[in-house]
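Dear H.,

Thanks for agreeing to be a second pair of eyes. The structure we're designing against is below in token form, covering all 145 positions.
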């Protein structure tokens, strides 16, 4: 879709919206990358990065209602991908952590996803990939505010 020079922001809005729509479609279609659904994949990635975490902190990070994240965590727990530990700082609370099975499944999916993205971006230069990665980080930081 062509945009006039004065509509640079409109172009970004359109392309971001289209990107999100297509990414969600890819993640729920027959061409889905990996075996984990997107929500569980992201939960495992975050637990891998930050270590054990409270449900409330995870919900805040993902900008989700705690009941939504609770359902996702319950599903991941039922599959043996995460487990709950008693919070040593608050005996009434729980911390979620990634299990060995969760690490194995996450590692497998990360490899599949990286391979798919490597294939999609094979015509891009290393510099273009670096720039795109840096810009995605900046955009995600803004969206997290």
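And this is the sequence the design step returned. I haven't edited it by hand at all.
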């Amino acid at each position: 879709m062509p945009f006039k020079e004065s509509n640079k922001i409109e172009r970004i809005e359109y392309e971001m919206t289209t990107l999100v729509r297509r990414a969600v479609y890819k993640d729920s279609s027959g061409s889905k990358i990996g075996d984990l659904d997107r929500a569980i994949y992201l939960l495992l990635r975050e637990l891998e990065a930050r270590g054990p975490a409270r449900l409330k902190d995870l919900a805040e990070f993902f900008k989700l209602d705690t009941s939504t994240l609770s359902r996702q965590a319950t599903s991941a727990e039922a599959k043996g991908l995460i487990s709950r530990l008693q919070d040593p700082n608050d005996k009434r609370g729980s911390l979620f952590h990634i299990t060995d099975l969760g690490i194995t499944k996450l590692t497998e999916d990360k490899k599949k996803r990286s391979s798919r993205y490597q294939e999609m971006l094979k015509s891009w230069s290393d510099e273009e990939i670096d720039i795109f990665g840096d810009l995605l980080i900046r955009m995600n930081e803004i969206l997290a505010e």
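Two observations from my side: Strands lie at 82-87, 90-98. The CA atoms of residues 131 and 137 lie 10 Å apart.

Warmly,
E.
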